[in-house]
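SDR family oxidoreductase
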Amino acid sequence: MTATLLSIGHGYSAAALARRLAGWRIIGTTRRAEKADRLRAAGIEALVWPGEDLRPAIAAASHILISVAPDDDGDPVLRELAEAIGAAAPHLAWVGYLSTTGVYGDHAGGWVDESTPLTPSTRRGQIRVLAEGQWQRLAERAGLPLHIFRLAGIYGPGRGPFEKVKNGTARRIIRENQFFSRIHVDDIAAVLAASIARPHPGAVYNVSDDDPAPPEDVLTEAARLLGLPPPPEVPFDEAEMTPLARSFYAESKRVRNDRIKRDLGVKLAYPDYRAGLCALLAAEG
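Structure:
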């Protein structure tokens, strides 16, 4: 039987995983018909959802990846498809849910790991905790081989800082003791592939690199690689930001990634932002 991945919400991280799964059948969902056409051109069996019936794809899947963001009521995938996914549990080898390190909340720059209590201070983090719990309850009830991946800030091709640094719109927002953890999209894909190869139902993994750092340090390094002066500094209290951008600064923490190395044998291709930025710049020419 051909290994079949159903990727619900087939976006940036899921696409990176799909590129690693040579010989697999990949079924991916998207909300827009025009994106479905692009997925088909990349060899993905695309379905528009919400809209099309996903139950045949669930029945055909050996593996399911969920990348859909929750809303105020939790996970929209489960609201519509919990019964079908639960019924498919006996023939599923692996289910992955992409969450966020935002579930840990603010730790004033301190370290967190997978055993840290979930105390999010933002609404975005709170609804992720709600969605994680919904998936865990379904897993317990139906015997679903669930794996939760808490992703740090994602960067990679098309999502680097270079364009803003080059065009002069980048600003180094300065806030004392502000730490963010990051992860290159290719390392996300490596972690997911390693988990698929070594499933451990019920596992939770932080997916982050080895070097949490203040956001201004990343922009300084991007400017150095471009041979440009660092972007201007702006104190956090004076910075003009969208409410979403400002909410990212509400929490400061450093995320431990020991479990993906110990339990999955993952060796990060980009263990810090310096390596990741250097590779991005080289790829962009």
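The mean pLDDT is 96.
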